Amino acid sequence: MTAPLIAADNITFRYRPGNLALDGASLAIPAGSRVALVGPNGAGKSTLFLHINAILRPLAGELRYQGRPYRYGGDFLSALRQKVGLVFQDPDTQLFAGNVLDDVVFGPMNLGLAAGEAVRRAEAALDAVGMLEHRGSPVHFLSQGQKKRVAIAGVLAMEPDALVMDEPTAALDYPGLTSLKDTLAMLHAAGKTLVVATHDVDWAWTWADIVYVLAGGKTVAAGPPAEILARPDHAALGFARPVLAELSAALGKEGAFPGDAAPRTCAELLALLRKK
Ligand SMILES: Nc1ncnc2c1ncn2[C@@H]1O[C@H](COP(=O)(O)OP(=O)(O)OP(=O)(O)O)[C@@H](O)[C@H]1O
Ligand SMILES: [Mg+2]
Partner of 127 at 20 to 30 A CA spacing, among 70, 93, 154, 214? Predict the structure, then answer.
C-alpha cells in the first residue's frame, strides 16, 4: 500500500500551559484526494493545518510526507513548503507586500524562477481568482473577501502538489465562490491534493472525497461525506447536517425513496425520486 501524501498521527499541541489545542489529532490525506476538515470553533482545525505546513511543531505525535517523518530543519522545511501550500484562515496573516502583484509574485521569485516566469505565474493565479484587474492595488485597500482571493492566488502561484486552505470560502461572494470552485475542480483534475477546513457542510457534502471531524483537539470521525455528515449525532460533534442530507432523511422517512440513500446533488435527488 502506498503511504498517504500527508499523514498526522496523534498530534498533541498546546499554545499555553494547561490548554491542549490538539489532543491526539490524526489525519491521512491520500495523494489527489479532496479532504474536508469540519468541527466547531476552537476544535483545532487551524492549529492542525499549521502543523501540516510545519509552522508549528507537535509536542507529541508525528507528521509524515510521502511516508517520511517531518524534520524541522532548513532543507526539509523549504522543500515541504514548496510542495504543500497553506492558505491561512486570516488573509492579513498571509499578505505582507504593499501591492497585490508584489505579494503574489514573491513566492515564485523565491523559488528562484526568472522574473518573467514568476510574473506569468502570479498573473495566471490572480486571473484564476478573479483579481487580475486589481494587480496594482495596495493590499490594504482590498476588502476581506478580495484579500482572501489574493491569499489563495499566492499559494496557487507556487504550483504546489497539495493546497491546504483554511476556510477558503469564508468571506467570498457568489462570483468569488464560483471561481474558487472552478479553480479547485481544475486543480483536482490536474491531480493536485486539496485539503480544506470549512464550516460549509453543504459544500463538503458535494465536494469532498473524505471528511474528518475534529472536536476538542481530537479526530472524532473520518470517512466519506455520506457516512460522516449525515450522522444523527452531528449536533454533539458540532456541525450542522447538510441540507441535502436533512431533506433525504425526511424523504426517506416518508417512504419517498430508500431511507439510506444519500444523494450528493439535486440531480441525484431528483433521479431517486423519479425512480420510485
Ligand atoms: N495563537 C494562539 N494562542 C493561544 N491559543 C490559541 C491560539 N490559536 C488558537 N488557540 C487555541 O487553540 C484552540 C484551537 O484553535 P483553532 O484556531 O485551531 O480552532 P479552529 O478549529 O480552527 O476554530 P475556528 O473554526 O474558529 O477557526 C482553541 O482553544 C484556541 O483558543
Ligand atoms: Mg480555524
Answer: 93
